[in-house]
Amino acid sequence: MLHPEMESALNEQLKWEVYSGYLYLAMAAYFEDLGLPGFAHWMKAQTAEEFMHAMKFYKFIFERDGRVVLQEIPAPPKEWQSPEDVFAYAYKHEQEVTSRINKLMTLARKFEDYATENFLQWFVDEQVEEEASFKAILNKLRLIKNDPQALFYLDNELAQRPLDLNLLMTQV
Ligand code: FEO
Q1: With a 6 A CB cut-off, is 17 part of the ligand 1 pocket?
Q2: What is the CATH number of domain 4-169?
Q3: 126, exposed or middle or buried, with CB in 10 Å at 0-12, 13-18, 19+?
Q4: Which of 12, 28, 67, 141 could crosslink 84 through cysteines, CB 3.0-4.6 Å?
Q5: 50 lines ligand 1 (CB under 6 A)
Q6: b/e code 4-25 from CB counts within 10 Å (16+ = b)
């Protein structure tokens, strides 16, 4: 049984994970428009991953006899200055997600809710990977600056990211 405050905070995080997917889909659309299909593909793969994260919260709330209550998702931005600007924005967003996961962990500890603490540990580890993968691409873009050939190569590299839509359904 979840403490009502914990249940509400988990629902809030479910919303944030959906919003993250929505944000990365907006970034995919920006890259499509820019003529960078590899970047767009990478962002679509990230969108699927974020929806998978959301479904983990969905499943966990139900498993703990809580109630999933979906909330309004704000519209993400649609314009950025450059690919570097997109990844700087996304990296900052992931840092915000990490901070929210940490706050959830603090709440779980306050209520001595060990099951939630254990569930959240997966996200603590995942956030280390999430921040690192965005930062690695941001670093490359900072090196590339305005070199179109290097950008083309990076676009090809990002096109290789696996996109596994089954990820979503294995969480429900
Ligand atoms: Fe679900 Fe990228 O944090």
Answers
A1: yes
A2: 1.20.1260.10
A3: middle
A4: 141
A5: yes
A6: eebbebbbebbbbbbbbbbbbb
Taking only the tens place, the pLDDT of each residue in 13-31 is 999 999 999 999 999 999 9
Q: Answer whether 15 contacts ligand 1 (Cβ < 6 A).
A: no
The pLDDT tens digits of the residues spanning 56-106 come to: 999 999 999 999 999 999 999 999 999 999 999 999 999 999 999 999 999
pLDDT at 50: 97
Q: Would the CB of 90 count as within 6 Å of ligand 1?
A: no
| Domain ranges within the chain, ordered by starting residue | 4-169
For residue 127, the CA-to-ligand 1 centroid distance in Å is 7
Question: What is the predicted pLDDT for the residue at 171?
Answer: 65
